[in-house]
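User:
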Amino acid sequence: MDKLLALTMFVETVRCGGYSAAARKLGVSTSSVTRQVASLEAQLGASLLNRTTRNTNPTVAGQAYFEKALSILDALAEADTAVADRSTEARGRLRVSVPVEFGRRVVAPHLGRLLSQYPELDVSLSLSDQMADLLKERIDLSVRLGSSLASDDIISKPIGRFERWVVGSPDYFARAGIPLQPQELLNHECLCFDYGDMHHGWAFRGSEDCIRINVQGRFESNNADILREAALNGRGTALLADWLVAEDVRQGHLTRVLANYEANPGDANGIINALYLPNHRGSSRVKVFISFLEEILSY
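Assistant: Predicted structure:
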């Protein structure tokens, strides 16, 4: 019995929920998968799978064995990739985590060009507004907006900048008036990002010192595009990244106000960072993707 082949077929059977589905994914016959898993069970002297007419699920022992086998196969794949990753040509799987709307609007439209340029590079793009645990989640590269969490364990590379704009629809400002100073936002319906238990405060810096406004509003969300939609629908004014609303402003669907003030000022707040682990220094995959991001952010 080829132990590595048997492990691969067992893992795919658990993932796919059956022999036939695993066989299709692996491009082999169902009988081959069945035979390899049976040989594995015979060698171990334990039943790894519960088989029914509808699906196939791991036994208690099978689940524990699946997790160990998966770790082995992942480690082997990572070892193969690490060796190939020091070559001049980017190849292998690159796991990337990016904020949801930034990924949808800024990164995704250009991915086809990257994949065409590097035919041996596979990209797994995860969209999340939460800070990724690079080691635990096996993420090769994470993109974060604003202050990074760089440390001795994480490398942070600035790859671009962005601004935050105060925007609202023309009909909203026709009803509520256009704020000329940040303090006037206290009289406005503000659409706020939900940071959990944190108080909502928008900071501004003009020619004088920085001031903080504790804005209020009837609607909040932890998704920036939901706030954008609310602003487009005339529900209030929002503080959003320029890459998210610049096209809406250009087309006249949203109006930018307080443009002579810097919103949420600070050296780190407007920086777009690429984060990766120290063991990815010299990685062709990481280097290629960072160059790709720097290119599209320079438009």
